[in-house]
What does this fold into?
Amino acid sequence: MKREKIAVIGLGYVGLPLALAFAEKFQVIGFEIDRERVLKLKRGIDPSKELAPKEFKNKNITFSSDIEELRSATFFVVAVPTPVTEANEPDLKPLLSASEIVGKVLKKGDCVVYESTVYPGCTEEDCVPVLEKFSGLKFGKDFKVGYSPERINPGDKVHTLKNTVKIVSGSDKSTLERVAAIYGSIIEAGVHKAQSIKVAEAAKIIENTQRDVNIALMNELSILFGRMGINTYDVLEAASTKWNFLKFYPGLVGGHCIGVDPYYLVHKAYKLKYHTKVINAGRFVNDSMGGYIGKKVVKELIKAGKQIKDAKVLVLGITFKEDVSDIRNSKVVNIIEELNSYGVKTEVYDPYADKDEVKKVYGITMTDKIGKGYDAVVVAVAHKQMRNLKEKDFISICKPNALIVDIKGLYRGKIKKLGYWSL
Ligand SMILES: NC(=O)c1ccc[n+]([C@@H]2O[C@H](COP(=O)([O-])OP(=O)(O)OC[C@H]3O[C@@H](n4cnc5c(N)ncnc54)[C@H](O)[C@@H]3O)[C@@H](O)[C@H]2O)c1
It folds into this structure.
């Protein structure tokens, strides 16, 4: 294999662990536009709080926000965000600006691999023209591209970069082999060579779309079962005894992947004059769950004879999923807003979320200390601190006949003295 020097562009949840893994085998430049992030990385601190300082030790890596540092690289990996706009349209600004940066330093013989989640066609139709424009080079002749999607989950210590098969693809056969060899040298589970870049892009986006649609089905069923007076988790436990029943659960779909990526596919479909129905329906159901839960809490409080105006509700958890500090696109916020719209007073506690960030992003002031006298407790995120709570813990902070709202079904069958509702 040619002696490659690898540059990773964007050192967030995806880029940083990847750059550090490459740095065990290759000389690596970790490039990041956020200078404060670079300062932390240079001190061995992961701003995303996923990696311990020891993971930075003995790695052949330099961190920089200086584009000049990128000139000596031969193999570029782009791992910048691919969010949506307020209208749920793909926002390609970070991806195209990263392509511009790479284009400015690209040389003959270099290869650029994208890791960001995109719709099929984005690498070749949207990114390559930017690379060509800023490099003055010809795609295919002078430089090559590839696509290799990331599959790790934030906070997941079981399924890691190295032990998960990595899909790789390239713009031609020799590029595919080059990309496969580089990734194959760090991924212990091996690589899957996709037939084309578009196939690799599509594979990633449907992994998350499939999850979104399946969770939406569970959410819809939970609304229905609520009307039937049966518990969804009880139904799922029974149905799961069949060998081919898929284990999905109802819940909030937030974050920057599952709740976002399907919109990329919808956008591309629309461009191809196909109107997706199932994918959009899934998005609608999942995006509506926060509002639904908020209304349901109000109904249950009324049933319990509580006055709604100024009722005091504790919300446990605001991150987008359990055991992480990431608050991006948190749907717990929708529950809080719905409750507040009825005049309910909410207090929010989360052992992982950063108080200043929550205030900045959502305008919500989190409480440092759980109080007393709550009319309801909404357990919105299954952080490990929440998983261990017992009914006596709730009793000690609640008014008599308070309501426990158990979105993740953690306390099913365990709340006997207080009111109880779950999805
Ligand atoms: N987080 C995950 O678990 C996960 C999993 C699979 C795929 N993905 C996908 O991977 C991509 C990256 O996601 P992430 O979670 O790592 O995002 P992130 O926000 O954690 O990190 C992205 C980093 O890129 C930097 N950046 C933005 N524009 C840049 C530019 N022009 N040049 C250099 N750096 C730039 C940002 O400052 C940030 O530090 C997205 O497309 C996402 O959908 C994420």
User: Anything to note?
Assistant: The chain has a mean pLDDT of 96. The pocket of nicotinamide-adenine-dinucleotide is lined by residues 9-15, 31-34, 37, 48, 79-82, 94, 97-98, 101, 115-117, 150, 152-154, 256-257 (CB under 6 Å). The first helix runs from residue 15 to 22.
